[in-house]
Amino acid sequence: MLGIEDCLAEVMAIPGAVDAMVIDQTSGTAVAAGGGEGNLDVGRSAAGLSETLRATADGLASTSAGGTVRISDMIITTDDGHHLLKPLETVFDGPLVMYVRLDSKRSNIALARHRLQNLAGRLITT
Rounded to two decimals, what is the model's pTM? Predict the structure, then answer.
């Protein structure tokens, strides 16, 4: 089992990783952050990413027959890279989300998704 800081270090070891965070989804705050190019506003980014995940889940739930949906992971591709969000099931106080931003020229989305899935299983989970 991994702790949050060790997990974050392994996320940053994914080829092409530029920065990463573990986010408390309920409050929208960063629990831990790594990497970055010095211009990342961790607080603002964590809040925005948390809201993006929440809005996506709400939107998808409205189109679901059961009215609920559980997101396994989410990929957002922009002109400056790929952004992966992985909700976690943890023993911590609330739901957490693993986030990694990848350089689009140096990364492989399939490999990054596989590594995040593996790390999510190794993080201290319920």
Answer: 0.89
